[in-house]
Each structure stands twice: as C-alpha cells, then as structure tokens.
Specification:
single chain, alpha/beta, Arc Repressor Mutant, subunit A, D-Maltodextrin-Binding Protein, domain 2, 2 domains, 7-stranded mixed β-sheet, two-stranded antiparallel sheet, rod-shaped, LysR_subst-bd
Length: 311
C-alpha cells in the first residue's frame, strides 16, 4: 500500500484542527462520524503517527497531529491551485481556435464565418494565419492548427477534409486589352499558350489554373509575372500588364467598377472546391465543429437550392 496520504483525509484532518471536533469535521465533508474516524485511523497507519487523542468527550489533535495538520494545510492549498490552474487551462483551451487559410478564403469567406461563430461564442479567441494552400496543409498535417482552409485541387495526403464552398476562376484583363473587346471565348489552347500573371508556386489559385489546363491535355506557358498576393495580381492586370485567372470571389468590386473585364473561356473547367482540412487523427469538436457547420451552411446558401456550377 502506498504511504502517500490521500487529499480527502488531509482535508478532514485540517477541518478537525479548525473546528476542534471530529464530528463537526465529518459534517463539513458530508460523511458520518464513524466513517471519518476510520479515515483518520487509516491516515495514522499510513504516516505511522498518532494524530488524534480520542476520549468520551471528543477528539483533539496531538502535538504530531498539529504539525501534520499545518503541513496538510499547505498541501491542500497547492492542490487547490493545481485544480484551479487546470480549470483555467480548460477554459482557455476551449476559448481558442487556431486557423490557417489561403488568401481567397481568409479575405472573402472566413470573416463572415468567424463573425457568425463569435456571436454564438462571444468569449472565443480566434487566431488566423493567412498563407498559401501548400503551407496551410503543412500546418494541418503537423497538428499545428485546429482547421485549415484551402483552394488547392491537389490530392490531400495525410489529411482529412470537408468541402465548405465552391468557386470559379475568371479570366480578366484591363479594359484596354484586345481581349476586352473580343466577341468569341478564349479556347483552352490559346489560354494555355498565353503567359499569365500568376500567384506564387503553392498558391491554390495557381494550382487550380495549371491543373485545369493539364486536365485538358495542355501545358501552361511560363508565367508572365509571379506575384505574392491577389491584390498585386489584380493591380498588374488593371494597369494592362497582362491577363490573369483569379477567383470570382475576389473580383466583384473591380468587375462592377469596370476596372477589370471578364473574358469568356471555353474548353477548360475552371470550377473549384474550397475545403477545410485537419489532422487525420483529429476529429473537429467544439468551436472547430461549429465553424465547419457554419461554413457548410453558408456555402449552401450562397449556391442556392437550385444552383448549378457555371462553366
């Protein structure tokens, strides 16, 4: 049998010292006097010390009992701090959500989803890293985030995923570009042969565009420019540098203002799926599961009950 005393026996001993009565101490712990007496006797056997003087008038701490009681009081304080600290850690952990997302999702979808989630969980703290899809997958694979959101068409190895939205890449040019006045769609072969302004390697938008052309049996031309942000790509297109394939989600303001023009395409599938990803051995729960449900509902509402993918 272990010589270590249990905390409840120490707590009972401290109460005897505080109230000068084993009966009162038993009442405070919600037990009977005989049961409390047996617990103290077991504590005495474990420590090899007599802690109480028992008589027909009651029980009182011995000198050894008073010394052990003072030590026990400090032990109980430390245990209470441990329990409170663990409780605080649980509260802190339950109030945190670690996310990473590709730029398109982070700028145009996640703010609404997170806003809806925080209305349900006002104490929730959300940490969000904005990275390209390849880096988001790396973080999810290593368990460094609760959820990631990506737009990459690549096969996801060592990850679990769920579709949260649909998107479409749009070919855009400046108003002065020859394609802006074109009446016939740009075919897949012409698109593949045209150097485009693109994001960096690892970007989901670039991966989707290149994969669409490869699926059509075509090899994309070398990029005209490689830029590290969607805003930089949009600006370069608007100044007439060249065409680009960009997410429909990010182009609405420019298309509405006329600073960019959409050019119809044919023979290439530019629809894409936006997905949440997470570690293969994890199961989304709590705030993670709530965010997934919100994203899925928002995606269904955006498509509408009778929406069909655009070609």
């Amino acid at each position: 049998m272990s010589t270590l005393p249990d905390v409840e026996s120490l707590r009972l001993l401290v109460l005897v010292g505080e109230h000068g009565s084993l009966t009162t101490a038993a009442e405070r712990t919600g037990t009977t006097q005989p049961a409390a007496s047996k617990r103290i006797s077991a504590l005495e056997r474990r420590l090899g010390l007599r802690l109480l003087d028992r008589s027909h008038t009651g029980s009182a701490l011995t000198a050894d009992g008073r010394l052990v009681c003072s030590w026990a009081d400090r032990v109980i304080e430390d245990v209470n701090r441990l329990v409170e600290g663990a409780r605080a850690l649980r509260r802190e952990r339950s109030a945190q959500l670690s996310l990473a997302a590709s730029l398109t999702v982070a700028e145009h979808l996640l703010p609404t989803w997170i806003g809806d989630l925080r209305r349900q969980l006002p104490d929730l703290h959300v940490g969000l890293q904005v990275l390209n899809s390849t880096r988001v997958c790396e973080l999810a694979r290593h368990g460094e985030i609760d959820l990631g959101f990506i737009e990459s068409p690549r096969r996801l190895r060592e990850l679990r995923s769920q579709t949260v939205a649909r998107d479409r890449l749009v070919l855009v040019v400046a108003p002065g570009h020859p394609w802006a006045r074109r009446r016939t769609p740009i075919g897949a072969a012409e698109l593949a042969a045209t150097p485009l302004i693109t994001r960096e390697i690892g970007s989901g938008t670039r991966d989707t565009a290149e994969q669409a052309l490869l699926t059509a049996g075509l090899t994309p031309a070398e990029p005209l420019l490689e830029l590290g942000s969607t805003a930089a790509v949009r600006s370069s297109v608007a100044t007439g540098t060249g065409p680009a394939l960009l997410s429909e989600l990010v182009l609405a303001p420019e298309l509405a203002a006329g600073s960019l023009r959409e050019v119809a395409t044919t023979g290439v599938e530019l629809q894409r799926t936006l997905r949440a990803v997470w570690h293969p051995e994890a199961t989304p729960s709590g705030a993670s599961a709530d965010l997934l449900a919100l994203a899925a509902r928002a995606g269904r509402a955006r498509r509408g009950p009778s929406a069909r993918p655009r070609s």
